[in-house]
Amino acid sequence: MARSWCVQTLSSGAALALLVLLGSPPALAATPIPDPAFRDCLTTAAASAGVTLANLEGASCDAADGTIRDLTGAEQLTSLEALFLDGHQVSDLSPLSGLPQLHRLEVPDNSVRDLAPLAGMTQLTNLNLSGNDIRDVGPLEDLTDLVFLTLDGNAIEDVEPLAGLSKLSFLGLAQNQITYAGYLSSLSQANLALNLEGQHTQVDIDHAGVTHLPQVRDSARVPVYPVTCGGPAGDCLHAVERNGAAGGASLDVDQPGTYVLTYQGDDYDHYSLTLTVQDQEGEEFPDVPSTHPFHGEISWLAAEGISIGYADGTFRPNRDVTRGEMVTFLYRLAGSPAHVPPVESPFTDVSTTSPDYTAITWAAQQEITTGFTDGTFGRSAHTTRGQMAAFIYRFDGSPAFTPPATSPFEDVGVSATFYRPITWLVSEGITRGYANGLYGMNDQVTRGQMAAFLYRLCH
Question: Which of 296-300, 333-337, 420-424 has the highest mean predicted lDDT (pLDDT)?
Fold first, then answer.
């Protein structure tokens, strides 16, 4: 087997009935919107308002009515003033970048990472992007008309680009990774409601005694120091020493393990921080103990740099893997080979600015994926076990293989789309299926399972 890559609201039916009654259906032909859930939401909103899609001013899309992944087509909603997309799987905001009337945008609990499409939307006054995977807020620095900005629950470290947003009356930055909030001191404390509680970050160390901790300051540039410390032997606050007035501290540890320090500020911004000091002789991830069935495989994945987990130090082995994440893992497993992405995206739902654009186009070039027949890749869709088998089979060069005449799994027929790659995985010892004799071809792949599959591929 060649393994050269291995290196260390209303239903659409109800909306249609309402449109017939109103007699003024939205101009779908003039506004192509390929995502069925997004199209349903906008159609329903337009029908309710008695307007065409081109004149629609606001829409609120409930995830209970269908998960939205792709905003393509929104470019033509030039009258749209407010859009609410709570709890979907949207990752690419670029279709919204040219909407001149859009003042209020709420996209909480989605999959947004890249804010570049918002850089020129200076008319925005209300923006809610909490619960995404945002690290860089630089594109927001010119949105000086913002009054409400909510960025809770992301992975933000640097808040300097927000320092010039002087019209803000509310700024939510809870549960990020901010250790220095002093850049926000330029904003008026009298007029700004600011929330900086629940910051979290991690420091990885080699077991070597004294560790210098990050300088921590709140939004008034006041130093904040640890108030509690817990380690393998219990309370460890006695091992924390303040380093003068600069806001730094050090931790003198004498045994490997995980040390958790909490910081609590006294100012109006509610600043608090949980700092995890992870000794590399301890567990790699706090949610993957040595007793976890995939502990070894996940540790290998981290050691190879294929996945280093989340910003809060966890791996989340039970979280489902998206298709974008899956090809990113394969790209890194291949050693992140040199690849010049095409100027134009081969997939309608993958922007050239998407963080995984290089990995996705590399996978397409290597014929590891061809995407779906509708021209999309489905980067935010969850990866099924059948799709995962096909990805890995193609990643390994689609080796010559004759599938068995009788299926080894009760739920995978010999005519199934992924029968060849699934049975190839079995022949290579990469999967054995479930204990009940099933493979679960349509089940979603978890991060723990993915680690196990990739480990077995290379060992």
Answer: 420-424
Give the distance from CA 174 to its chain's centroid. Answer: 17
Instruction: Report strand pairing: 272-279 vs 234-235.
Output: unpaired
Query: Rounded to whole angstroms, how far apart are CA atoms 134 and 41?
Result: 26
Query: Measured between alpha carbons, how far is 107 from 91 in angstroms, rounded to an integer?
Result: 10
- How do the domains of the chain map onto residue ranges? 201-279, 295-457
Compute CA distances 107 → 110, 127, 139, 247, 459, whole Å: 6, 8, 16, 35, 42
Cβ–Cβ < 8 Å for 261, 277: yes
Q: CB–CB of 219/269 below 8 Å?
A: yes
What pLDDT, in 10s, does the model give residues 292-311?
Answer: 888 888 888 888 888 878 87
3-state SS of 119-171 is: CCCCCCCEEECCCCCCCCCHHHCCCCCCCEEECCCCCCCCCHHHCCCCCCCEE
Measured CA to CA, the distance from residue 380 to residue 92 in angstroms comes to 10
CA–CA gap between residue 108 and residue 403 (Å, rounded): 45
Assign a CATH topology to domain 201-279.
Immunoglobulin-like (2.60.40)
Backbone angles phi, psi at 229, to 5 degrees: -150, 125
Q: Enter the pTM of the model.
A: 0.59
